[in-house]
Amino acid sequence: MVENNPADSKYKKRLSETLLVLTTVLWGTTFIITETLVNTIPPLFYLGIRFLIGALVFLPFIKRFKLNKKIIKISFFGGLLYFISIVAQTYGLKDPQTS
Predict the structure, then answer these.
(1) How many domains does the chain have?
(2) Which of the residues 39, 54, 72, 90 has an alpha carbon 20 to 30 A from that of 62?
């Protein structure tokens, strides 16, 4: 039987809150970085580098997942939709129209 240690529970809560704040900061700063970079390099080149870095980071963990054709097919379409939305967002940051 596993006992709940209050100190362990506090640590996990503090860690999860810290990671959520870190995620928010990193996510928020990508808009600034993207807006700056797409004004100096082509947006699709920037996105290619961004997705390549993401793939290289994820690659070592791929063996942990049991993949079949259905999962690959669903992931492909999900990734395609994500890519389309990121392209639209990036071009939106490149040429913002102010009212």
Answers:
(1) 1
(2) 90
Q: Which of 13, 15, 87, 6 is nearest to 51 (CA)?
A: 87
Q: How many CB atoms are located within 10 Å of the residue 47 CB? A: 19
- Please report whether residue 76 resides in a domain: yes
- Domain interval for residue 30: 6-94
50: nearest Cα among 26, 72, 71, 66: 26
In-domain check, residue 1? no
Euclidean distance between CA atoms 55 and 58, whole angstroms: 5
* CA-to-CA dists, residue 91 to 27, 35, 45, 51, 55, angstroms: 18, 9, 12, 16, 22
